[in-house]
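Look over this today:
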Amino acid sequence: MKKVLSINSGSSSLKISLFAMPSEQRLAKIMVDYSNETNQLVTITLPNHELIAQHYTGKITPVELALDLLKKHQIITTSQEITAIGHRIVAGGELFQHSTKITPEVIQKLESISELAPLHNPANIAGILDAELLLPNCPQIAVFDTSFHTDLPPENFLYALPLEYYRKYKVRKYGAHGTSHRFVAQQAAKMLKLPLSKLKLITLHLGSGASVTAIKNGKSFDTSMGFSPLTGLMMSTRCGDVDPSALVYLLKHHAFSNMDECMKVLNQHSGLLGVSEVSRDMREIERESTRNPQAELAIKMFVKRICDYIGAYWLELGGADALVFTGGIGENDNHVRELICERLNCLGIKFESIQNQYHDSPFDFATADSQAHLLVIPTDEELMIARDTYELTSTKQSFSKSAVNY
């Protein structure tokens, strides 16, 4: 048995799980919620499903916090029991198209492409360096969100810019959330009792960050996030798709003092927060929506943009066997799921309202005559990270795939 630590740094939370491999038994799960920056909530779930919550305001690093909690609750006796560490890395660009063992050279390459995911990659790298300091002899593996999208056809990953910008600067669609989309697609195939290679799926990762992916024959065919995780759907604090001319206009009229401020607004002050002016949290926005028109508008915009992408991918795939909802909103917000599915009636999508509201995940809330299944599947990015980490540290292999030449 090997104990593998999986570290999943998101834009609003940090999830760390310890697995016994290859049995895939989760020994503990730790979550740090960054929603309240001054009073972060830390929860640890133990094997007996006991949930312990505490508030965290100290300066301790996330990996150090995880190790302390694991020892405190006697999940491990010493840090040396951990045999490998897997890290979720949002953006690998074309440098990293498969999970790979982390070396000093890999860290340098990651630093060189931090601009592709400015909210995530620097934090991911910090986690790697932190783990290296605390567990210097423990092998570490990078698992990339972008790797699932490396099979996109060129008509889907290229922008209609001069092709020289792709050749010289590698400006293209990379996508994100690939670890989550990959996991729920595999789970959907199990639920439907069909080979993933035979399915057409539209997977919706709806959380603080949000994206939609069209999956054809088990591979990502198109996805809503682009060059960075900023584009695509409207998100918690990210704007999603915006006409570039609008940004040039705002810069010319000094709405932003410089490009850095512009990027900060687009990444941290837009989306649900920017429109509602209430919160970045969908739960709070929904509570306010009955008396606050801006909160109601934010929900309508969020749903509308999701349906825009579903409609586009429905056409690209020629229909779909299932829509898969995952992520914090996708898994837990039956109201948002209902609003989305109501707009899809013209596609023959039909759902059971009661089934949508009261059911343990995973489940299917489509009617028998619906044109597609409506699956709610909890994502488990940490398990996918653990699987890749165990495989690479057991076989001592890493993979690299050359860029497509055009």
Observations:
- Residues 397-406 have pLDDT under 50 and may be disordered.
- The radius of gyration is 21 Å.
- Residues 293-317 form the longest helix (25 residues).
